[in-house]
Amino acid sequence: MRYTGPKNKKARREGLDLSLKTPGSKSHASLLRRIAVPPGQHGTGRRRKKQSERSRQLREKQRLRYLFGLSETQLKNYFQKAVKSKGNTGSLLGQLLEKRLDNVVFRLGFAPTRASARQLVNHGHISVNDSLMNIPSYKVEVHDTIRFRKVKSAKIPYIEMMLGNTEYAAPAWLKKEGTAGKLTSEPTSEDIEKQVNIQSVIEFYSK
Known about the structure:
Number of strands: 5
Shape: globular
Largest sheet: 5 strands, antiparallel
Radius of gyration: 18 Å
Number of domains: 2
CATH superfamily of the largest domain: Ribosomal protein S4/S9, N-terminal domain
Distance between the termini: 22 Å
């Protein structure tokens, strides 16, 4: 089951900003102030326990799950697909996750969080190659074009704010032009690995 509890609590549990809150919001600012403090009544005085190797692998796996908003079953299925494909399992896993439609919408800067990007897809605001696509897990392929189906979708206040953010830069494997974007090459796992040790996730599922 996908985690639906308090988002800041989960981020503080992992000691990492999981991009679950809109940047610039009061809630996000509160998270950044307290990111190093574990959640709970005694968070300020609690020391993080020394982790075993298995515990560390579990935490990295959970971070990856929460980062992309996946259920345990979904992440395990992605791992199994990566294992069955030829190439580096960690890189392939990263590619599969980055090519999810909800993630591509988020990476293009069309939505402030992956959760809001998933909502846009679910509610039918997004098209792929000019065809409606309302499945967040849809696998975007190289040369696919993603855009808002209707002009009024881009006028939704929080989307309009995101589109007006000239400082945001999409990853090198994406090309953004106004309210449309294209997957120009295979994604890399570089951005994910800045936040999660994918090799630890592979080791967790390999045992």
